[in-house]
Write a structure and sequence with these properties.
Number of helices: 6
Strand content: 15-25%
Shape: globular
Bound molecules: S-adenosylmethionine
Low-confidence stretches: none
Helix content: 25-40%
Structural class: alpha/beta
Mean pLDDT: 93
Number of strands: 7
Order of helices and strands: HHEHEHEEHEHEE
Length: 198
């Protein structure tokens, strides 16, 4: 796990946001327990989470998209250092411009918070029958529950968008969403089989 600690150190020094331990441990356990094999990740950062996912078991394949060119290059390097080039594909660009003609067991949304709904809808058809969307940072450092924790106008705007996304998940008739307090707040949205929708 030495490479992983190095990536975490790099992220801290260079202020690259990565998943909190509790959140990533939850998803890694989910991958094992539900025998997840294919993952699409929005927001690679420097590859920390995709490498952790790929290391859960040898049959996990990750496609991950990153917007920032420097982070993309660092992610590609980290994937190579961990000998995972055959199981992690890193794409460069805006996730909203990518389309895939295949299905994924798990779609992990960890990109720009204001655009979570857009990504959810954009990739909805790429979710396999028993697949799940997992969204991170839905607590946003506690501010989603308590907006008085910030007085910054931009942050308040962002928190309101996250709240709207939570409402979208809660009222989405095609998905059942569980909100979990792990890490920075995680939502697990499972497709409801067609015969169970009302
Ligand atoms: N999942 C990573 C981890 O835990 O190791 C952390 C990802 S970080 C929270 C979010 C990343 O999304 C940032 O590196 C940011 O540059 C990237 N991002 C922002 N907008 C994006 C977009 N439209 N498409 C793809 N990536 C984007």
């Amino acid at each position: 796990m030495e490479e992983i600690s190095q990536i975490k150190r790099f992220a801290k020094i260079h202020s690259v946001p990565i998943m909190k331990d509790e959140g990533i441990d939850f998803i890694c356990n989910y991958i094992i327990e539900h025998n997840v094999k294919s993952i699409l990740e929005i927001g690679t950062g420097i590859g920390y989470s995709s490498i952790r996912f790929a290391k859960t078991k040898d049959d996990v394949f990750v496609s991950t998209i990153e917007f920032d060119i420097e982070r993309y290059h660092e992610a590609v390097k980290n994937v190579a250092d961990n000998n995972l080039m055959d199981r992690i594909l890193v794409y460069l660009g805006d996730a909203a411009t990518y389309t895939f003609d295949r299905k994924f067991d798990l779609i992990f949304i960890d990109g720009p918070k204001a655009q979570y709904r857009k990504f959810f809808e954009h990739f909805q058809d790429n979710l396999s029958e028993d697949g799940v969307f997992i969204s991170d940072n839905l607590s946003f450092h506690g501010m989603v529950e308590d907006l008085s924790l910030t007085h910054n106008y931009r942050t308040i705007k962002l928190v309101k968008k996250i709240r709207k996304y939570i409402d979208f998940l809660k009222t989405n008739p095609d998905f059942k969403t569980e909100f979990l307090a792990y890490g920075d707040g995680i939502a697990v949205s499972k497709k409801i089989p067609p015969h169970k929708t009302t």
